[in-house]
Specification:
four-stranded mixed beta sheet
Length: 214
């Protein structure tokens, strides 16, 4: 809730649904992932997100606001999860089909340290898949800087010569038209709001999404 560029964006509506709930519902179509976990902060202002997650029947883990890596590691450890599929809350148009596609594709590269769609998929349709036990060893050994702890997988990108990082490429129909699907600021939100209005409900496909040009 404390986003500096767009405070409270997690609750801003898309099709009359809070943005975070919109994302949860789209992710639930995944058949290859075990569960969805909201990794949010312990700050009281994020209590409203916990309430929303419980309403949507999504598991919750809470940790330090600035230590994103510690939060993700804690969420994975508490739930006995070793392979984490990371989706950020400002990418509401990701759905279960996209997640399952990335899981299947990542299996071809196993064992890997990180599989990522970044700079391959349209911006805002981003997924990262990584091994929690390996990241946690780096974290507990104190090898991550404060900035790297804040940005989760940044350590891998900063040291890519030492790790097996694989790029995940989209099918042609998902390659996009240059549109941006992330919600980082008010301009992004306004664009996402208009884009969502093209659909009758929140369950539209990625194919349908990328065909829309704004």
């Amino acid at each position: 809730m404390s986003s500096k560029r767009l405070p409270g964006k997690a609750l801003k509506p898309l099709l009359g649904i809070p943005l975070l709930a919109f994302l949860f519902r789209r992710l639930k179509s995944s058949v290859l992932s075990n569960e969805i976990i909201l990794a949010t902060s312990e700050n009281t202002e994020d209590d409203v997100l916990v309430k929303l997650a419980k309403k949507e029947k999504v598991n919750v883990y809470r940790g330090d606001l600035e230590d994103v890596t510690g939060r993700f590691i804690g969420a994975a450890e508490v739930n006995n999860i070793d392979t984490v599929i990371r989706v950020t809350g400002d990418c509401p148009f990701i759905n279960g089909d996209l997640v399952d596609y990335c899981i299947k594709l990542s299996a071809e590269y196993y064992p890997f340290d990180l599989c990522t769609t970044k700079k391959c998929f349209p911006v805002g349709l981003d997924v990262e898949i990584y091994n929690n036990s390996k990241l946690s060893k780096l974290y507990y050994a104190g090898q991550l800087s404060s900035k790297e702890s804040e940005h989760l997988t940044l350590y891998y990108y900063n040291n890519d010569h030492n790790y097996k990082i694989k790029k995940l490429h989209p099918p042609l129909s998902w390659s996009g038209n240059g549109s941006i699907y992330t919600v980082d600021n008010i301009e992004d939100y306004n664009r996402a709001f208009v884009l969502a209005q093209n659909f009758d409900n929140e369950y539209f496909s990625i194919d349908s999404l990328v065909k829309k040009i704004l």
